[in-house]
TrEMBL record:
Pfam families: Trans_reg_C (PF00486). It comes from Mesorhizobium zhangyense. CDD domains: trans_reg_C. This is Response regulator transcription factor. Residues 123-222 form the OmpR/PhoB-type domain. The keyword Transcription applies. SUPFAM superfamilies: C-terminal effector domain of the bipartite response regulators, CheY-like. PANTHER family: REGULATOR OF RPOS, TRANSCRIPTIONAL REGULATORY PROTEIN TCTD. The keyword Transmembrane does not apply.
């Protein structure tokens, strides 16, 4: 999920629509709402955030370092002032990158992926038997051959892999894929996506790498 902070509802709704077209969940906040949310939101919900985009916050100040007290996700400033002084000021505040608007939504996603990749000390993939699951949006590979997956199924597999074999609940998977504020989609859609994903993996691998327990959730069998 991408979190967008901007005073203008038109802006947050616009980004939400653009991210949705790319199959990426997002949520928008005004700066005053965001401050309260980031301090009180549950740890499990924060883990579903891929990046924070900070836009026009009016007179309020959104401190990247305060965000990092609770999350290691990239913090990116969206700047409408094309000046060196403003860019340097934003970097000094602690953001990971400054993107000048207008910008294509795919460039934003590419920059997020690049920052996350550089921040990871471990390998950029998880190995499950002959299957290699990447963290940069590529389809998984089985015995070196790509396995094309729909975006939702691929993101579920990436989320399971990112949790290093830990069990995650259906709600956590839903929040990571659809966003914690999406009320238009039923949470049970996760079960359908995972069922289709497991069938494809079982056909290719010869075994089911996803362990599921009722009421407890899902876990990717790794190692």
């Amino acid at each position: 999920m991408i979190v967008i902070v901007d005073e203008r509802q038109l802006v947050t709704e616009g980004y939400h629509s653009l991210f949705d077209r790319e199959g990426v969940a997002s949520a928008g906040f005004r700066s005053s709402e965001f401050g309260e949310w980031v301090e009180s939101v549950a740890e499990a919900d924060l883990k579903s955030v891929r990046a924070f985009l900070i836009g026009d916050c009016g007179g309020d100040v959104v401190l990247p370092r305060k965000i990092r007290d609770r999350s290691g996700a990239p913090v990116i400033a969206l700047s409408e002032q094309h000046s060196l002084e403003n860019t340097l000021k934003l970097f000094e505040s602690g953001v990971d990158d400054v993107i000048r608007k207008p910008v294509h939504i795919r460039e934003i996603l590419a920059r997020i992926t690049a920052i996350r990749r550089r921040a990871q000390e471990e390998a950029s993939f998880t190995q499950v038997g002959p299957m290699r699951i990447f963290t940069d949006g590529r389809d998984p590979e089985i015995a070196g051959e790509p396995l094309p997956l729909p975006r939702r199924e691929r993101r579920i597999l990436e989320y399971l892999a990112s949790n290093s074999g830990r069990r995650v609940t259906k709600t956590q998977v839903f929040n990571a894929i659809y966003g914690i504020f999406d009320e238009e989609v039923e949470e049970n859609v996760v079960e359908s996506h995972i069922s289709k994903l497991r069938k494809k993996l079982r056909e290719k691998l010869g075994f089911d790498p996803v362990d599921s327990k009722r009421f407890l959730g899902y876990r990717l069998i790794v190692g």
